[in-house]
Write a structure and sequence with these properties.
35% of the residues lie in helices and 20% in strands. It is an alpha/beta fold. It has a 6-stranded mixed β-sheet with strand order 6-7-8-3-9-10, with helices on both faces. α1 crosses α2 and α5 packs across α7. The protein binds adenosine-5'-triphosphate and magnesium ion (MG). One of its GO terms (molecular function) is ATP binding. It comes from Brachybacterium huguangmaarense. InterPro entries: AAA+_ATPase, ABC_transporter-like_ATP-bd, ABC_transporter-like_CS, P-loop_NTPase, Type_1_exporter. Pfam families: ABC_tran.
Length: 304
């Protein structure tokens, strides 16, 4: 396990992209360390992909527990003057950010490119630690502590099309039977695809499932959401989850997100208008600092 992680760090140091590293990892998987790597893939690879520059802890102290490690709901994330500067940069990506994120619906982060949305989400998720300031998770049982990224599932805008069968791609380190995987896929709106491609679980992600037809971008994002459903972790971070989904599909996807994310702390980074509802919080991030747009400052926050 450690050797594989070290190999991937080495490759990353050589400028190999995270997507290519994932392919290396899955190739090694095929050589006989399937179980270990799939578990590894559910933690380190996912967070590495999220972090991008691998600044986050690389090797988890424990590689197990891919499903929710704590049933205790995360009620709020309290950020206090958090600052983070990427290695090699002088300007902070997140600069004295403060806020209590506590929506009972979705936490929506919006704002211009480079404003610090993804970095702030990484701090909220515990994938990065602030250089200064604090990030604390407040739980339903009243406790308050450090973020615990093993409890976070991420749907990244640039999810790698791993050369794995759909079955392994979706369950990624989670014990799940075919009926469970198919049920998750149906919940994400891929029922029609399952009905037309009976051996869908055996088809490789990124390769054609019928002659000349591959997963569309929107179908792929739904596939990734099915993985989050199976992982069943208390926090979801979705970075532009509907970027490849059409307008009609948008509403379905958000409805699905509301339904499936109802018991979780859900952070959505988006440039789209996803249809804000009661309980949602919308934050605009600019120059590395979040400002709450909805509910308007002065009105009580939904989770306060
Ligand atoms: N891995 C990295 N290494 C160095 N600098 C980075 C890294 N990731 C982001 N940055 C820088 O940090 C700042 C904030 O980036 P971030 O990705 O958080 O912005 P964003 O709001 O998510 O942008 P976008 O809408 O384009 O996704 C930018 O100046 C960016 O160049
Ligand atoms: Mg971003």
């Amino acid at each position: 396990m450690f050797v594989v992680a070290a190999l991937l760090v080495l490759l990353r140091g050589q400028g190999v992209s995270v997507g290519d590293m994932a392919i290396v990892a899955s190739s090694v998987t095929a050589l006989g360390t399937l179980a270990q790597l799939v578990v590894w893939g559910s933690g380190v690879a996912q967070i590495a992909q999220f972090v991008g520059d691998l600044d986050a802890p690389l090797v988890p102290s424990s590689a197990e527990a891919p499903r929710s490690t704590s049933p205790t709901r995360i009620e709020a994330v309290e950020v206090e003057s958090a600052t983070f500067t990427y290695r090699g940069r002088t300007a902070p990506a997140v600069d004295h950010a403060s806020g209590r994120f506590a929506g009972t619906g979705m936490i929506v982060l919006t704002g211009p490119n480079g404003a610090g949305k993804s970095t702030l989400a990484k701090l909220v998720a515990g994938a990065l630690q602030p250089d200064a300031g604090t990030v604390r998770w407040r739980r339903g049982d009243g406790s308050c502590g450090e973020p615990h990224w093993q409890e976070v599932s991420v749907l990244h805008q640039d999810e790698a099309l791993l050369p794995l069968p759909v079955r392994d791609f979706v369950r990624m380190g989670v014990e799940a039977s075919d009926p469970e995987i198919l049920a998750a896929l149906r919940r994400t709106g891929l029922g029609a695809l399952i009905d037309t491609v009976p051996d869908l679980l055996d088809r490789r992600v990124g390769e054609s499932y019928t002659q000349g037809a591959a997963f569309s971008g929107g179908q792929f994002q739904r596939l990734c959401l099915a993985r989050l459903l199976l992982q069943d972790r208390p926090m979801w971070v979705l970075d532009e989850p509907t970027s490849a989904i059409d307008v009609a599909g948008d509403a379905d996807f958000v409805a699905l997100l509301r339904e499936t994310g109802a018991d979780r702390f859900v952070v959505v980074i988006t440039h789209k208008d996803l249809g804000v509802e009661d309980g949602d919080e919308v934050w605009r991030v600019e120059d590395g600092r979040p400002e709450r747009l909805l509910p308007p400052v002065g009105a009580a926050a939904p989770g306060a």
